[in-house]
Amino acid sequence: MRVSRMWIGAGAAGAVLALSPTVAWAGGTPAGGPSNVRVSPSQVHQGATLSVTASGCTSGGTVTSAVFPAVHLPAGATTTATARVDNTATPGAARLTVTCSGRSASANFTVLRGAATQGGLGGSHTPGTAEMVIGASMAAGSAAAGAFYLVRRHNRGRVRA
Question: Which residues pair with 107 in a beta bridge?
Fold first, then answer.
């Protein structure tokens, strides 16, 4: 009786070991392929950029989607790529796919209508001619007002003959 229990236990352990690669593949995290795919931000405007982070692409990979051109994912245990969403991308739900080592994994995100704001400190917006003219005239006006104030203050204490 004890021998049969031992054989049943060994058979069950063998079945678990034999099925473990299949279970890992069905779970979406195969060995040597992408896993833990994250998109930041999860909602992005047309024409804006998003970051895609994935684990398991130790030889590099590719990120593809219908709303942006394919981008290269650098090699690394956990690595990040940046993609720019097309200005004409259809607003709504979108999907991207990370492919490496012959395997792929996907993640969802949302494309929002309209251009993103161009905030930040410098470099986010190239000034045009109108902005340059307005800025120069404001600087010149400030310099003239300052000079007038200093001359007037200097002449206040003098007595004219």
Answer: 96
> What mean pLDDT do residues 150-154 have?
78
Asked if residues 68 and 95 have their Cβ atoms less than 8 Å apart, the reply is no
Peptide bond into 41 cis (omega under 30): yes
Could you report how far apart the first and last alpha carbons of the chain are, in Å? 131
Residue ranges of domains in the chain: 32-115
Distance CA 119, CA 13 (A): 59
pLDDT tens, residue by residue, 61-96: 999 999 999 999 998 889 999 999 999 999 999 999
- pTM listed for this prediction: 0.53
Q: Which of 55, 30, 51 is nearest to 42 (CA)?
A: 51
In words, the CATH class of domain 32-115 is mainly beta
Question: Minimal CA–CA distance to 92: which of 44, 37, 40, 41?
Answer: 44
The secondary structure of 26-95, three-state, reads: HCCCCCCCCEEEEEECCEEEECCEEEEEEECCCCCEEEEECCEEEEEECCCCEEEEEEECCCCCCCEEEE
